[in-house]
Design the sequence.
């Protein structure tokens, strides 16, 4: 439904942008280039973040839709740091903290509200009935138990796994809801924003370092950065280990962002082929393929939430394992750790 409406909006935008009284000479080249430009502008306008919220109505051209201008909040950290022109970007490097509310921020808040409401009204809260009743209660319990037993405990351990289960559950369901709302009309996916996925990865990064320090101590944490090699190799090993700390959140950031953004762009470009080629017969191919990608996006939304949570649990488990590695430097523990590193490498790639 959402992408059928988008196709109608694309058609209206193309029709509105075409000026009257075209000469025959421009029909061969100019019109085609203009149509491609209009379709590309529409697609990237739709998937990018914005300081205004536009309700795209089918058969209305771009610029005729209802628009809500979102508030701009800029905090100057030093005098005259924020530009007077609201359209000029605010840079933190110049001392201007931009806390403006954008379209993706609204979508993130909406996902949080829907998540809280789902568990507030759908979860089993009858303490006298430990067995949940109803479809939603059973579905939620199944997902919660899956994250706890198959992700947290299996990758972190039965001792420390329950400690990190609340974070993993929050990450899984929050990402899942943000992915799914992007498939509804007039809504967009916040996880197609690099800043939001970087913020989620930063939470995992901080929690991973806290788990490592808590498990091995501050001395053991810094000792691990040397890789156990001779002192004269520290200048080589320490930068490599520090770089390895940041490649993990980078993998989390890019994987989630790229997969969610690419799916939406592919669907819109499939629909945009109808207007780029200027032949309605392309709809016989574009629309079925777009619907196939749309249903695939439902699966990708769940898979990407699972992969982010799985990788987070692997990284936390590797940090927690520092304690056991220092206490039992035996071959079987080294083999288990190398297996964890190999599994994390396979999933991250």
Sequence:
């Amino acid at each position: 439904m959402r992408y059928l409406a988008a196709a109608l909006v694309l058609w209206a935008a193309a029709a509105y942008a075409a000026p009257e009284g075209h000469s025959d000479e421009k029909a061969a080249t100019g019109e085609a280039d203009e149509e491609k430009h209009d379709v590309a502008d529409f697609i990237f306008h739709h998937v990018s973040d914005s300081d205004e919220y536009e309700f795209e109505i089918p058969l209305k051209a771009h610029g005729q839709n209802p628009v809500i201008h979102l508030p701009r909040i800029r905090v100057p950290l030093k005098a005259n740091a924020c530009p007077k022109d609201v359209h000029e970007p605010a840079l933190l490097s110049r001392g201007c903290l931009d806390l403006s509310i954008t379209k993706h921020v609204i979508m993130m808040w909406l996902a949080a509200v829907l998540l809280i409401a789902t568990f507030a009204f759908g979860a089993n809260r009858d303490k006298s009935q430990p067995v949940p009743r109803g479809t939603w209660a059973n579905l939620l319990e199944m997902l919660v138990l899956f994250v706890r037993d198959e992700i947290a405990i299996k990758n972190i351990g039965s001792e420390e796994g329950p400690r990190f289960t609340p974070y993993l559950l929050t990450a899984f369901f929050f990402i899942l809801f943000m992915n799914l709302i992007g498939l509804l009309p007039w809504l967009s996916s916040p996880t197609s924003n690099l800043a939001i996925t970087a913020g989620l990865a930063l939470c995992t990064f901080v929690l991973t370092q806290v788990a490592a320090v808590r498990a091995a101590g501050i001395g053991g944490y810094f000792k691990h950065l040397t890789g156990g090699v001779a002192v004269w190799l520290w200048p080589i090993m320490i930068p490599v280990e520090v770089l390895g700390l940041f490649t993990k959140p980078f993998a989390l950031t890019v994987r989630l962002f790229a997969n969610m953004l690419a799916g939406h762009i592919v669907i819109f470009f499939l629909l945009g082929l109808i207007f780029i080629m200027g032949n309605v017969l392309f709809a016989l191919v574009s629309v079925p393929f777009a619907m196939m990608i749309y249903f695939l996006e439902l699966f990708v939304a769940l898979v990407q939430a699972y992969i982010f949570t799985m990788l987070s649990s692997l990284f936390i488990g590797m940090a927690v394992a520092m304690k056991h590695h220092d206490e039992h430097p035996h071959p079987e523990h080294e083999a288990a750790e190398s297996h964890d590193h190999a599994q994390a490498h396979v999933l991250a790639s």
